[in-house]
Amino acid sequence: MVVADQNTQSTLIRRYIIRGSRTVSNYWWAIVTLLGGAGFFFTGLASYFQRSLFSTQTIAFFPQGLVMSFYGILGMCFGLYLWFTIFWRIGSGFNEFNKQTNQVRIFRWGFPGKNRRIDLRYELSDVQAIRVDIQEGLTPKRAIYLALKDKGAVPLIRVTVPCPVEEIELQAADLAKFLQVSLEMRNS
């Protein structure tokens, strides 16, 4: 979800804060996969030493204990990956539309390395339209794009959590009105 920064909200500058990977669901899945993976790993390890951790019966190391150890290692790796994306704030940043400098700035944090800071700048005159893509179905997706002349479309927001379509349309319409460009709607 996008939050407008009230400190810079004015008639000439609009700044929308993007939360990125620091969502409640990411915290939940990071905890569940890390603890679940650790449980599987230690159960497999206990079967190797012919000990029992959680039940009165031990399991055979080959093949059950070995497979549980393998899945435990995978679960812990995935859980650590989620914790690192949360810690590094992957995907968080802001979208700034500045009429004073006549620029659009899209900033996001990426993975550590030489391209950690993703900082895109475009002239306001290059903005052709604001495009809203709505895909309904089993996994609904909603996105707002900045359509640029001769440069394609740059995603501003991708909403994967259930959110009313009207709210996305309202945000896009408000932004299109501020930039004085057309609003394009695409339904899939």
From TrEMBL:
Per the entry, what this protein does is: Seems to be required for the assembly of the photosystem I complex.
Is Transmembrane helix found in the keyword set?
yes
Q: What is its main location?
A: plastid
Q: Name one GO biological process term.
A: photosynthesis
Q: Which UniProt keywords apply?
A: Chloroplast, Membrane, Photosynthesis, Plastid, Thylakoid, Transmembrane, Transmembrane helix
Gene Ontology CC entries for this record? chloroplast thylakoid membrane; photosystem I
Q: Write down the NCBIfam families for this protein, in alphabetical order.
A: PRK02542.1
Entry superkingdom: Eukaryota
Name where it's found. Answer: Plastid thylakoid membrane; Plastid, Chloroplast thylakoid membrane
**The name this protein goes by in its record:** Photosystem I assembly protein Ycf4
Under the heading Pfam families, the entry gives:
Ycf4 (PF02392)
Which family is annotated? Belongs to the Ycf4 family.
* Topological relation to the membrane, as annotated: Multi-pass membrane protein
Entry's transmembrane regions: 27-49, 69-90
Q: Which gene encodes it?
A: ycf4
